[in-house]
Amino acid sequence: MEPNGVSCDVLLERPWLPVSINGCRLLAKSWFGETSCSILLTDLHCVWEETMHSAAIQKRAQELNKRLQAPVKAFFAHLCEVIQPCLSGSGQPREGDAHVSLTRLDSADMVLRLKSKLAGLPFYWEFRCTPAPIAVVCLHLVRPLLSMSHVLHQQVEQLEGLLVRKDAEIQDYKENGATLSRARLQTDHFEPHTYRGRFLAKTLPVVCSDLHGLQNFSGNLQELYAAVAAHGDARKRKMSDQDPDPTPSTGAEAGVTAVAEAGEEDGDQKQTSQVEEPRDKMVDTPAVQQLVSCCRAERGSSKAKKKKGLGLFR
Fold it and tell me: SS3 for 145?
């Protein structure tokens, strides 16, 4: 069984893929291990998820297939082979007898049903996806898409600056007598603000529709999403691996440490000091020396308790 953290990390770096299941257009991302899987589905109004491991897969398989007694590995490879084409956007399963359907329940859950044949016998399966929590939506949609928007904005600004410099270069050529050999290559002077206004007026009505968003998460966007998600995940792991800087101890804390260490020299019970400080830096004040002497005196006057031997009964 793969660790849960491994499946989460791998699923995060998988891009959203446009899929069509039973006439319903969605974005999907999925991960299948040896005996575990995770899937995410969204119609841009809700996000559904399900993560399953070996024990849950075995239980559901026996629930849906009463006669199935095989271990998970024996039928999970067949399940992956049949369902993965649907979740990757390549259409229906390759097997002619396999059928996949999608049902939305009144409880807001979504059920992805599969019917196929395994070793000549009917094999049934269901992914029972529930609405994902906000943290999952932010992790897989909001944060990566905001990062993608920022990256694309930076790219647009750099391209606009490049076009402005190209116009200045062309103008310099013209002022020095250069002419175009073909008139059809003539272009207008680039004005960033004018171009941006025309572009938004023409593109926004088309891009802002849900159907366009589901169909046009293209290969370039998928590649950018995977790169952004991988970079963010690597940065998070690097930050978690770094230990915080130790906080310097104050003089009062050093005095308390000295008292605790003095008591440990004469007693059987150990006291753990929470602050570590070199002895040459400890505060050596009369009050601290008096407190140390009192602790040693009390330790010496107290009677040691005998430990009871351990036998068959405790």
Answer: helix
DSSP 8-state assignment for residue 139: I
The dihedral through the CA atoms of 261, 263, 269, 275 has a sign that is negative
Euclidean distance between CA atoms 45 and 67, whole angstroms = 39
The burial of 112, by beta-carbon neighbours within 10 Å (0-12 exposed, 13-18 middle, 19 or more buried), is given as buried
Cα 196 from Cα 153, distance rounded (Å): 12
Cβ atoms of 31 and 7 closer than 8 Å: yes
- The per-residue pLDDT for range 215-236, each reduced to its tens digit, is 677 788 889 888 988 887 777 7
- Angle between the 286-301 and 251-266 helix axes, to the nearest 10 degrees? 20
Task: Give the integer Cα–Cα distance in Å for 5 and 90.
Answer: 28
Sign for the pseudo-dihedral over CA of 187, 193, 196, 201: negative
- The closest alpha carbon to 127, from 56, 227, 179, belongs to 56
Is 157's pLDDT higher than 50? yes
Q: Which residue type is seen at 95?
A: E
237, amino acid identity: R
CB-facing half-sphere around the CA of 284: CA atoms within 13 A: 4
pLDDT tens per residue, range 31-69:
999 999 999 999 989 999 999 999 999 999 999 999 888
User: How confident is the model over 69-87, as a mean pLDDT?
Assistant: 89
Write phi, then psi, for 21 (nearest 5 degrees): -120, 115
Between 220 and 156, the more confident residue is: 156
Helices (H) and strands (E) in the chain, counts: 10, 7
Which pTM does this prediction carry? 0.67
